[in-house]
Amino acid sequence: MTLTATKPHLIYLAGKWVDSPDLLEVDNPADPNAPAGATYAATEAQYEEAVTAAVAAFRETRALPVYERSRALREISAGIKDRREELGRILSLEAGKPIRDALTEVDRSVFTFRLAAEEAERMVGEVIPLDLVAASRGRFGVTRRFPIGPVAGISPFNFPLNLAAHKIAPAIAAGCSIVLKPATKDPLTILTVAEIIDAAGLPAGSVSVLPMTRELGDRMVSDPRFKLLTFTGSPAVGWRMKERAGKKKVVLELGGNAAVIIDKTADVAWAVKRILVGGFSYAGQSCISVQRIFVHEAVADAFREQLVAGVARLKVGDPLDPTTDLGPLVDQANAVRTQRWVDEAVAAGGEVLAGGKASGAFFEPTVLANVPASAQVCSNEAFAPLVVLFTFSDFDEAIAEVNDSDFGLQTGVFTNDLAHAWQAFNELEVGGVVMNDISSYRVDHMPYGGVKDSGLGREGLRWSIEDMTELKLMVVAQPQ
Q1: Per-residue pLDDT tens digits for 436-478
Q2: Which of the four pLDDT bands, split at 50, 70 and 90, describes residue 6?
């Protein structure tokens, strides 16, 4: 089943490896003349077979003892680790992600599956005293979590392995079956991981990995046989999905225009070092990539000078080169769109301090200033290697500016003022506040998600498992 130069990778349908009449070619964003490979898009009949199998498999997965779920998850984790170099190369080729970042994503997925095994072992309930009133004398309650049912998972292109793992791993841990629709731009990495999942010996039908058309994906969203939809992607698509999802539970991890605040007490050199990572890793193609930077006027000049100098040192090039910092955007269309947004910002009075130009699917690491807050590069999700600088004189003003957004995923706050740290935590309208680090910080066991247009619910293994289970209460009465 492993990808070769001449043979498309088969798709994983309820424990079987199958092809379809619909060949899916996978581009290499860094080199349009050297495709990353090919696989297949599932047909309507194959979709139906996968969902039917998931419903049937749920009768088995819900009854799997914890040690079996945990064993399978640990074996998957170990299998990914054993094939680290292979998976990193596939990911780099199909996603255009620099190989250092691709290997980091593989390592994160190893952790994600291992942690899911541990969380499966920690799904504890509680005993609740019910005799708080005389009428409930001699009664107590016991709670336990039960798997919710078959899960529909839709994962994005920017982290094609680890964000898919954040759907599959908690589903296995919770005792749910899952049908995963990976991004059609880069499905080869998770299909290769499906080989490892297959070898773990889970019930047939408990996991299917099916690239499919958007039309079939829409059917997946509204299919009442799924009891939970978990989607990571754009806000516009995600909220439309929620409208069509029916009675099923919905978890949305969407986008944003993430901000950082550089307070006057900040360690400027540290802030610059981290923002060079947070704003430009994987060409800015992350929901929590640093996009808006609010800098106190007392340190604005020093910060600006150091940031522009740091950006000039970033290396743009071949994703397979270990020294590359930035590869291409996922396709040329996104580079063209980014160029249009930058040009609009300049026409509105913005200043380009660094970068600002597209070349094929590549876009230079870009720093902008004096851009109106209403410009696309500020108000919408750029998903590109660009940051926009603003200055402020009062910390209240900075918080208000960050909150003046339709999005609210994460914010970084660089400050050594404890009062400002607590104020930011209390007042910022986001799902996470990261002190003295970038908005794009994430470790895979933390609760992760946003407010406003940035999403609904939280990911992170423990919180995903809670969404994939239903809490049930048993009341025990002692005869009087």
Answers
A1: 999 999 999 999 999 999 999 999 999 999 999 999 999 999 9
A2: low
The interaxial angle of helices 188-199 and 84-95, nearest 10 deg, is 150
**Same-domain check for residues 430 and 299:** yes
Active-site annotation holds for 176: no
Concerning whether 378 is annotated as a catalytic residue, the answer is: no
pLDDT of 348: 97
Structural element, H or E, at residue 85: helix 84-95
What's the total number of domains in the chain? Answer: 2
**CA 412 to CA 434: how far, in whole Å?**
5
CA atoms within 13 Å, Cβ hemisphere of 86: 15
Residue type, 247: K
Query: Quick one: tokens of 438?
Result: 């970038």
Instruction: Verify that 418 and 298 share a domain, yes or no.
Output: yes
Task: Give yes or no: residues 304 and 241 share one domain.
Answer: no
Choosing from 49, 75, 105, 287, which is the catalytic residue?
A: 287
Tell me the per-residue pLDDT of 350-405, one tens digit each, with 9 for 90 and over: 999 999 999 999 999 999 999 999 999 999 999 999 999 999 999 999 999 999 99
Catalytic residue from among 49, 68, 105, 253: 253
